[in-house]
Amino acid sequence: MLRSFVSIICCVVASVVAGQAHAADLTLRFASINQPATRTFQEQLVPLKNAIEKESKGKVAVDLRGLGQFGRPNELFNLVEKGEVEMAATVQGYSPGRFPQSSVMELPLLYETGEAGSYAMWKLFEEGLLDKDYTSVKVLSLYTLPPYAVMTSNIDVNSVRDLRGLRLRSPSLTVGLAMNRLGMIPLGLPLDHIGPSLTANLIDGMTYGIDSATTTIGDGKPLLEQVKVVVDAKFAAPALMIVMNKAAYERLSPEIRSVIDRTTGFEFSVATGAARDKWEAEALDALKARGQHTVRTFSAEQRKEIETRVAPVVDEWIASMNRQGIDGAKLVKRARELVRERSGKPA
C-alpha cells in the first residue's frame, strides 16, 4: 500500500515537472480598449495572441484582456510606457497632443476605406514621417478605421445644415475640429461613457462605426439600439495602434523578437483595415435590411459642401504642425499620395 502511495506521488510530481517544462517562459500582458465580445477582440486581437503563442512554440503566453481589465482606455498608452503592461491596443486620440504627426490620418475626407488609410499610415511610419510620435514605444501596428457614420438618438439629418448644434461624441481632437466647422458640438468621451451619456441625454449622438455600435459597451446595451438615425457620412475616423513597451521588446531573445515582428507590422495593419471595411459594409447592409433605423447617405453635392466647409481645418492643422516644428504640408501631401496609391482614387 505504501509503495502504491509513493508511486502515485511520483506520478503527480512527474506530471507537474512535465507541465512546467512545457510552460511559457514569458507572459506578455496585452491590454485592449475592446470588449471581449466585439469582433475586433475576437477576430483581430485573439488571432494575434494565438499567432504569437504558436509561432513562439509555446515559449510566450499572451495575457489578452478587454476593456477596463488592465486600466481605463485613456490610461493604456501610459501603462505601456511605464511597463505596467507589455502591449496595448488603443487609440491615439485618447492621449490628446501626444501624437501630432499621426493626427494627419484623422483629417476629414482624407480616405474612403480603412484599408487605404491603414496602408498610408504604416507607410508614413516606415518613411520616418511619424518619427516624433512613437519614440517611447515599439510600434506593432498602425491602422485606421473606415470613416465614421453620424448617429443621432432622435434628430433626423436630411442636410448638412441639420448637423448644426448637435452634441456628438468625437473620437479625437482633430476629428472634433472638423465637426465644429460643420456646426456640430464635439465632445470627447471614452468608449465606456458613450452609452450612459446617450441615456442621460448629455449628447445627441456620436460619430462612430456602425459595426462597432452593434456590440455592447459598458452599460449592457448596444449603442446602435440607443440611436434612431444613421448617416453614412464617411467623414473621418480615428487612428489606432498596437504598441509594446520598448524595454520589454528589447529584452526578448532574437528568436522571439522575430516572432513579434512577423505576426505584426505592415501586413497585419493593412489586413486589419481591410477587415474593418468588410465588417462595416456588412453592418450597414444589415441595418438597412432590418428597417428599424432611418438610414441616410449624403449626396455628391452635400459631400462637396462638407469638403468646402471643412477645408480650413487642413490649413489650420498644417499651421499647428509648423508651430511644433513639423512639416505639416509635407505630411498631408504624402498621406494623400499614399491613399491614392492604395485606392487608385484621388484623395
CATH class of the largest domain: Alpha Beta
CATH superfamily of the largest domain: Bacterial extracellular solute-binding protein, family 7
* Domains (count): 2
Shape: globular
- Mean pLDDT, nearest integer? 90
Note the total helix count.
12
How far the N terminus sits from the C terminus, by CA atoms, comes to: 81 Å
- How many beta strands in the DSSP annotation? 11
| Low-pLDDT residue intervals, each spanning 5 or more residues | 1-6, 8-21
Radius of gyration: 23 Å
Helix and strand pattern: HEHEHEHEEEHEHEHEEHHHEHH
Give, in spatial order, the strands making up the sheet with the most strands: 7-6-8-5-9-11
Structural class: alpha/beta
Sheet of most strands: 6 strands, mixed
Q: Helix coverage percent of residues?
A: 40-55%
CATH level 3 topology of the largest domain: D-Maltodextrin-Binding Protein, domain 2
| CATH architecture level-2 label of the largest domain | 3-Layer(aba) Sandwich
Proportion of residues in extended strands: 15-25%
Could you characterize the architecture of this molecule?
- By secondary structure, this protein is of the alpha/beta class.
- It folds into two domains: 24-145 and 238-278, D-Maltodextrin-Binding Protein, domain 2 (3-Layer(aba) Sandwich), CATH 3.40.190.170; 149-237 and 293-343, 3-Layer(aba) Sandwich (D-Maltodextrin-Binding Protein, domain 2), CATH 3.40.190.170.
- Helices cover 47% and strands 16% of the residues.
- The protein has twelve helices and eleven strands.
- The chain has a six-stranded mixed beta sheet with strand order 7-6-8-5-9-11. It has a five-stranded mixed beta sheet with strand order 2-1-3-10-4.
- The protein is globular and about 60 Å long.
- Residues 1-6 and 8-21 have low confidence and may be disordered.
